[in-house]
Amino acid sequence: MPELKVAILGAGNLGTTLAIVLAGGAPGIRAGRSRRVVLWTIEPDVAREIRERRLNTKYLPDVPLARSIGITMDLAEALAGASVVLVTVPSKVVRDVARQLATALGAGTAGPALPAIVSASKGLEAGTYRRMTEVLASELPASFSGRVLAMSGPSIAHELSRGTPTAVMLACRDTVLARAVRRDIQTPILRLQISRDVAGVELGGVLKNAYALAFGLSDGLGLGLNTKAALLARALPELARLGVALGGKRATFYGLAGLGDLVGTGLSEFSRNRRMGAELARRQGAEEALASIPGVVEGIGSVRLARDLAARHDLRLPLLEGIAAAVDQAGDPLKLITRLIG
């Protein structure tokens, strides 16, 4: 098969991990096909370290990057000739990146063929409550209507970057396009299942971050697997109820993008959201805890937005409300957990 180019916007832990996986850019990881992978970042220190030392210690320590993985701070250079553009930046900057992307694409930077735009960013836009594919579609040229996809599922960077297999969802109303993108970016260790439920796949990725905080609260209190099993049994139906109210399909939340992602994020020792919950359980303030955790903790914003959306839809979700109370330091974490699993 001919070589294709994949541009990855954002060189955080997920973006760097996807670059490694798609390029076969670490020992023991096979790409499955020839790809030219280019990472785009706005952080000079990250770009410099990747270029000179083939490391990204800021976001993915101890994992070397192959020299075949490109790095640039020039968006036009990243997009030139790309067939697929993966957006992995934090949700709070997606609109800003989308505007830059729209300008570059409108200028014909990517070439005559329109690339597919795949959002791997997990979050809702504050104020508008829009999903990330909606934010991207609202800023991109009209010619990209229908060419924005969502990718979400259990994908802990520490494991995936070291060759541990996983499966995630790739969602698009156009299944023909989704299959084409799957052919382009699927690898022996990154398997993709196709769904037409774009809303459900994205919402699963957002809401699991909020509920993952509860598993961290349990760990921070020194509770065990019994407690976490009870939390899971309470969290999943709540997550699905809210997700359905927001437009997703119930079955989606019991698959990779809901249950699968919740288990991965809630139980992994490398999950920032789980760690955030643990810090909150130790009575550390939210801002202080955030400062101690490298990278973006999407769960804090997600739990507040989810609480607001639940209220808008007249849904009573006790576990979500309890997590929000813990974030706001409005109750004793142990009492909250024991009450909510009862």
If you had to describe this structure to a student in words, what would you say it looks like?
Helix 1 links the parallel strand 1 (4-9) and strand 2 (35-40). Helix content is 50%, strand content 12%. It has 342 residues and is of the alpha/beta class. It contains 16 helices and eight strands. It starts with a strand and ends with a helix.
Label this structure with key terms.
16 helices, alpha/beta, eight-stranded mixed β-sheet
Brief account:
This protein has 342 residues and is α/β, with parallel strands linked by helices. It is 50% helix and 12% strand. Strands 3-2-1-4-5-6-7-8 form an eight-stranded mixed beta sheet, with helices on both faces.
Q: Globular, elongated, flat, extended or rod-shaped: what is the shape?
A: globular
- Calculate Rg over CA atoms: 19 Å
Please report the distance between the alpha carbons of the first and last residues: 56 Å
**Count of β-strands:** 8
Strand order of the largest sheet: 3-2-1-4-5-6-7-8
List the helices and strands and how they pair.
Elements: E1 4-9, H1 13-23, E2 35-40, H2 44-53, E3 70-72, H3 75-79, E4 84-87, H4 94-106, E5 116-119, H5 132-139, E6 148-152, H6 157-160, E7 166-171, H7 175-185, E8 190-195, H8 198-220, H9 225-245, H10 250-253, H11 256-267, H12 272-281, H13 286-292, H14 298-312, H15 318-327, H16 333-340
Parallel strand pairs: 1-2, 1-4, 2-3, 4-5, 5-6, 7-8
Antiparallel strand pairs: 6-7
